[in-house]
Amino acid sequence: MTDKLNLSNEEWRKRLTPEEFDVLRRHGTEYPGTGCFLGTKTPGTYVCAGCNNPLFQSGTKFESGTGWPSFTQALTPDSLTEIRDVSHGMVRTEVRCARCDGHLGHVFPDGPPPTGLRYCMNSVAMKHVPEGNPLPPVLT
What we know:
Layout: H1 9-15, H2 18-26, E1 44-48, E2 54-57, E3 61-62, E4 70-71, E5 80-85, E6 92-97, E7 103-108, E8 118-121, E9 126-130
Antiparallel strand pairs: 1-2, 1-9, 3-4, 4-8, 5-6, 6-7, 7-8
């Protein structure tokens, strides 16, 4: 893992679209069923839209029926961080990019084998790099 990326809100606003900023920096969420990666099966790697940190392989993606793209495991144990989230009157586990601390979604213990986990992610928080293409450099 590379060093943490710490930018001001002003710097993030210059780098991100308004939708990306809302989700990644303000912990927003896209409406269920609207994300561009919902239902896609193109092989490749999903990277953070904020910093290009590699997050998930397409082979771990599955259809959860929740309205958001879901994965069974992170690309590496160092790709993500998990934070206890007690917002909205419930207890959940928030998932953030380990590099830029951007909000990606939540993880739940109701996924399929082999992990039993469901990483429920916002499409807008990620970019897809097709298999065979080089991963973009992690942004600084």
